[in-house]
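Morning run. Coffee first, then this:
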Amino acid sequence: MDSRFLAPLIVFSSLFSVNLSAQKAPGGVDDYSIWALDGDKLPVSNYRALDLVEDFLDLNPEDFNFGKTSTLFFVLKPRTSGSSDLYLKSGDISIYGDRIQHGRISTPLTFHQGRPVIIAIEIQRSSRYSLRANQELRLGDSTLFSLAEMIVYTGVLSRVDRRKVSSNLALKYGLPITENESPKWRDYIASSNRLYWDTRIDRLYANRVLALGASRHEDFWQTQTLSETDWDICLALDFIADQGDMPDVYVADGSFIVFSEKSEEESLLWSCENLHETHPLHDWKFHIQDWNSPAQSVLVRVPRVGKQEDSLFVTDGSQMFFAPQVNISLNTITYEVALSPLQNDIHYFFTNRTTQDCLDSIYQVQGNEINVVAPVQNGTFQIQSLGSGFVESVNLMDGKASVSRSEGQYLVSL
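And here it is:
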């Protein structure tokens, strides 16, 4: 075996182990020194947090000898607010209730309405400082946070590798990472370099990104996920398990269904005048990638907000597929999307069919022509290819326009 896969590994819970011979790594990025995950405490999204108190005595300070450079990733969810007390100290890295102190540099910790966040830190030290820094391992107030995952690399990662690790964590915990000054670094990158979420194509749907699927190299198997941002949404294959568990459904390596939500600005711009006339999924779409699983359906559980539709439909622009309501409770409503009629590499949008929910229009072009009839007489609209992401503006004349296009799937926005 290649010696680079023999780096020491700490798993804080005996419930989980990593098979090093399989070369599994977060985001598919090897050479980590610590990868701690999968505990038995209160869930963060659909994963159980680590128990630092129970496992703290088993930790070896030598395993935290970071050296001159290191790259660290944490997934933290606050349990209290307003505290500046110490949570965890390892060498020259200290996590407090309101900041992370690394050497002389302090990085503020900010949380929005108690939601979990992904924290990535790259640290470079002088040789003298690194020798005297890595001597202390101390636990402070363990009630400050739920720590879902911690990854440490003893070195500096490339920007692509940092993005792969962040993409892995974002999909696991349902945390959006679509905001970045450079569009190139908004993508969600798989270990194979495929894009789970492509900013060229999915740019309007950047508010939240969730996924079901499997990636063996990343030790990623996710048949249920939920988002703790904004209002909760839960996705599951065939049935919804308790939070912290997964439906026992086989998913082939590399198979993914990626859901994404229209960004708030776009949603407000194109939404109906009366939001109560829309259903809870009118801002969501999903994209199937290399799907191979015996799962019969995806269950989508959402809060009971907006218009309560008994059933919905998903559309690819030319066909409608029935998505019935299968459960309703005091606070939530659940729809079922059958997987058998759906195709790989196609984007599907939710609709109630009668009003199209004030959504942008979806077209499947087979006759080399898109005919648009708009509710306004003059103006422009945009045509975006959902294959290449190419966008073109077209002028309306008397509320109509006809555009020639090659075969494919297109999104038309007024």
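Residues 6 and 346 are 41 Å apart (CA to CA). Good start to the day.
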